[in-house]
Amino acid sequence: MNFSSSSNDQFNQTDLEQYDEAWNDLANINIDALDESREICSDCQRPQSVCFCLDIEPIASLKNHLIVLQHPNELKRCLRTTKILELCIPSSNYHLFNGKRFSFGKFTRLHELIAERETVVLYPSSDAVSLSEIFPNKASNSLNVLVLDGTWSQARVLYNSNPFLRSLRCFKLDTAKPSMYVIRTQPAEICLSTVEAAALSLTHLESNPIIFERLTRPLKTICDHQLHNGAVEHQSKEFLISRGLYRKPLNKKIRRKLETKHFDKNATPLSDSNGLLKLLDR
């Protein structure tokens, strides 16, 4: 298969990254929120006409804790999914910290939480184990599940900018299902939204499938509303490339990586796409 390429090999990759990010931001603009005359729900912080609180069913209790390290740029996104986590998970089990560098001096509570029990990080590092291999320590009977909230490139920045994260055990998800968050472009088929990733992790650790349903139900409502009001369903960059539908220029490094892969147009593309993830989310 021939892949799109730039007519100029010196194409400015930084410009392309900014172009992709701008289109992502544009696609996620909440048109309803632009009307300042509309009342905003005090809980989900969305206009009353698109409030998803009726789909919120709080989880009564959890043994494990969820820690979210959120990249500052996520605050600019009107459709971020961490609000669902905040409304569904008991406040004693949900901890969100916003920043880039989480030093002990500025984020004392974060480091206290990490010291209280074993912490595992959802991140596809080279030594990450499968989620199915993660179980709470019998002594404490609970874990901290630490999730990085942002685009994949932002998640890499968070991981690489905080050395203490590299001392913690990493795990990756076992799912081959595409993201339900179809109104936001993902770099690869294995990429999920923060709420989906948290839902899968907690469902496994708590051995309770109801958790996944409760956490993803509001996400489906959000997507259905946006699609009903003119948004289009997004395919991942990986999906588009594998089917020859990706029209933006690809640099030499990405083309070489892609050309080593075999694409089956009738199969889920690149189920082993961790290697491509770093290249596609640019």
Automatic annotation (TrEMBL):
Single annotated GO MF: tRNA-uridine aminocarboxypropyltransferase activity
E.C. designation(s): 2.5.1.25
Catalytic activity: a uridine in tRNA + S-adenosyl-L-methionine = a 3-[(3S)-3-amino-3-carboxypropyl]uridine in tRNA + S-methyl-5'-thioadenosine + H(+)
Pfam families (alphabetical): DTW
Keyword Transferase part of the UniProt annotation: yes
Keywords: S-adenosyl-L-methionine, Transferase, tRNA processing
Coiled coil: none
Residue ranges constituting the DTW domain according to the UniProt record: 37-231
A GO BP annotation: tRNA processing
The UniProt record lists the keyword Transferase: yes
Family statement: Belongs to the TDD superfamily. DTWD2 family.
PANTHER family referenced in this protein's UniProt entry, alphabetically: TRNA-URIDINE AMINOCARBOXYPROPYLTRANSFERASE 2
Protein name: tRNA-uridine aminocarboxypropyltransferase
Organism this protein belongs to: Sarcoptes scabiei (Itch mite)
